[in-house]
Amino acid sequence: MISTTVFGICFLFYVIALIASITALANKREVFHKSAFWLFSIGFLLHTVALLIRWAEAGEVEVAAFQVAENRIIEGWEWFAVWISHPPWSNLYESLVCFGWGMSMVSLYGMKKFNIPVLPVFAITLSLVVMGAASLLVDQTISPLIPALQSKWIHLHVTMATISYPAFGLAAIIGLFYLVKVGVKNETFGLSIAITTIIILLIAGGGSMFTSGDYEISILTTHGEKSFPLTYAAQDAAGQSLTKSARFKLAIPGAGIAMIFSLALLLMASVAAAFKSALAKEKFENIFKLLVGAGFIGLSVSLALIIYTTAFTPPFEMSQEQIQSVIAANHTGANGASLVANYELHGKAPFNFSLSGNPFEFMLLVVSWLSLLFYFLVVTKREWLTEQLPSEDILDDLSYKIILFAYPFLTLLIITGAVWAYYAWGRYWGWDPKETWSLITWIVYSIYLHVRITHGWEGKIPAAIALAGFGIVIFTYLGVNILLSGLHSYATG
Amino acid sequence: MSNQPTNNTFADKIWQLFTSVKFTIVLLTLWLLGSVAGTLILQNATPPQYVKLYGTTWSNVFFRFGFFDVYHSTWYSLILLLLILNITACTLNTYKAKYALAFTQPKRRSVKGVGKLFLNYSFETENVSKHLDKLFKIISKRYVHTESFEEGSVKRIYAQKQPLAHFMVYFVHLSLILIILGGMITGFFGFEGIMEIPEKGEVDYVFKKTERGYVRESVPFSVRCDEFTFQKFESGMPKDYVSKLTIIENGKDVYSQRIEVNDPLAYKAYNFYQSTYRELAPLSIFDKKTNKTTNVNLPVGERQSLRDPAITLAVEALQSGKSNMMASVAWADMSGQVNRVMLSGNSEQDKQMQANNPYVITFSKPQPAYITGLLISSDPGVWLVWLGSFLMVVGLYLTFYSSHRRISITASGTNISIAALTSKNPIAFKRELEKFIKEAELESSTPVAEESK
What we know:
The complex is a heterodimer.
Chain A: H1 2-26, H2 30-70, H3 76-83, H4 92-113, H5 119-136, H6 153-181, H7 186-205, H8 208-211, E1 215-223, E2 226-229, E3 231-236, E4 241-247, E5 249-252, H9 255-274, H10 281-312, H11 320-330, E6 340-346, E7 351-353, H12 359-388, H13 392-425, H14 433-452, H15 460-483
Antiparallel strand pairs in A: 1-2, 1-5, 1-7, 3-4, 3-6
Helix pairs in contact in A: 1-2, 1-5, 2-4, 4-5, 4-6, 5-6, 5-12, 6-13, 6-15, 7-9, 7-12, 9-10, 10-12, 13-14, 14-15
Chain B: H1 5-18, H2 21-40, H3 47-64, H4 74-108, E1 118-124, H5 128-142, E2 145-151, E3 154-161, H6 168-189, E4 191-198, E5 202-210, E6 213-232, E7 238-249, E8 252-260, E9 265-267, E10 270-287, E11 292-299, E12 303-305, E13 312-320, E14 325-332, E15 338-343, H7 347-353, E16 359-363, E17 369-378, H8 382-401, E18 405-412, E19 415-422, H9 426-439
Antiparallel strand pairs in B: 1-19, 2-3, 3-18, 4-17, 5-6, 6-7, 7-8, 9-10, 10-11, 10-16, 10-17, 12-13, 13-14, 14-15, 18-19
Helix pairs in contact in B: 2-4, 4-6, 6-8
């Protein structure tokens, strides 16, 4: 598809813009600042064009499906109505690409409006992470809209999300700047990042990290031109189904060990922070830095191994015995013996190691890695970073204003969702996990608004809420679909 | 008042608690944590599922504290009730102060304050009246209420705009109360049931979901499905399903409409939604002994006993594409022997396969028959929710983007001093003020004391 190629070029421009913005920090010449901005703008333009192309491509699919279903050729206005009926926000891939687009839009606005030289680096990185996650998704195909999505409310609903979510992202970045400027201790940053990374490692590593010390990744198989994760079904000796469709995963050599190493060191750093009063100040700082640093190296090694293995392992085949032993290891009884009596693989060799096997786990690890990198930036360049930032009051005010802008859109996002649900399912609210988490997001930012006007709680607390709030936004957006079950269709993407 | 000091202090303490924003934050946090709990703990499942998942002890604890139906539990409602009380108390508590800010103080044309929201400038100049005229001209363009007057030897300008900004937050708070009330009305008086109607059939009852599973309940009307059209994509995914419904009251057809997903029918207090559909295998059973053919439509997984011929049928699987249909049918006659036939849709082939059977089962038509699944609801609270939603969005904009700004300019001798107060957004207000000062060419004169904090 042409849109995919254009998205690729757009991604490339974002990368070059990021490099230019980093260069602009090291070398204060205006030309780098300007080129970072313009490169990012061109990337954004391509992003927009790619979305429009995707819309047209989806239109062709809709028209073809419509003609087959109705058994007739359509023309004129009827053709146009069907052709335009599928805007690019109906599955996970399209949704992420839209989110990335919104992120770039607010980032460009922020770069243009606020005079914060370090902002572009953070904002472009956020856009890149979102686009990176989208590009790793296996299912980028266009399928015709299912009846529940054929509503005019979807357009308003998505528009509200595309405005509010990225704006909360920008508010979070500026909240982070505020915390740097206001002089939050290095260890506090380190500890928060270490704990977040521990949680991410626990989620991304999964059960296999503890049972066998392996980091496992879904294997891809191809069918025609399409790639999809290899799955299998297995039964026990009594003929009872153990699983109807489980992902077939293989360990990445060494990655699991490196992750456990990283996890253990970050845990030790957190424990050290809890007992810091027992140590001399300077001694504690050094130990803490050392532990987090070693944890960072562990994570870097595991990421490097994941990238290396997925990039350089050629498509491979596996013998029956190998496949059997992998599946057997996944279903063991109380005594450790395998329960699997027979199995069926849903896919054929050649198999592939690919980052697309576990795209979100990989992106989570990348985000962890980036935040640890940020910790070291704070530790080593605190003074320089503080100088780059405008005054506390300005940062606080900016973050507040962005949230004031985004909050009504978040409210509208929930309301349009409720109206849509009322027309589609007969109730405006059903305590579906997605609905509940959108309410939770709303409560979080409501807390922000009230904390900010409460005497004695202003300053750091709201900034921390603005930062954590975006994490909750992302959980509502992606985590709920992946970790909790619900009604939103892109859950299965 | 002073007769019962202890009682009074306790009441005072309660009042203080309910009028504090910190209490609001605590309540919001509890609301948040409660909502999170409801998404992490399995809701409204059966006891065996819970015991399997959490064990007996934890299941009992969770059950006792309402964690298996968080959003309908007493404590969850209590949090919301306390929040409503908190909002009401805060409103009562702040109303007088806000009234003073919006009306009493402006009447006295006084601008007093401390902190970020209060700005203060002072200038020495030779030509006071020239600057004063300019300031009046500039400010009166942007401030609806601008007046110039003299108090003895002191010349003054007083300007203000949007005094009602103080009250806008009440709309937001009221809207939240309306939405919660609407939700409660829905919870107490709402009605929701599932109705399944076979094509051409007529039904006058629904199934309501209760704690004991689905319970049949009569409704004061009946619904006929005149037509059910179903379109599939090539992949087999549904493209569209449309039911043409007729509502019948007292034996008369009163209303007819087509409905589909996202496009319901509204009749009196009831809404009719296209929810699901079920495919039925259209079977025709030919009894070789009597030479009689019986037609029956049967959903997958349901068993049906026929009287003539006396056999029991069950459709074990049904698969239909755009132009083909296949089914696996099990049947047993009086002997109890279970037989299975695979229907390919090719009637000659199907007949041949069953040449030795006493009964020949074939499809009676080339496409499946359908049962349309409707969701019927009546929701007397929904209008309050929509009203609250509307009020909330409007209220938020008014709250966030309006501010009561007041400017008081005093000129005596060679001194012009400006005191200004805003209810919100001091940075933008400061920018505006300094623009006024620059336009009035006061900048060239020396400011004496700038912006007292």
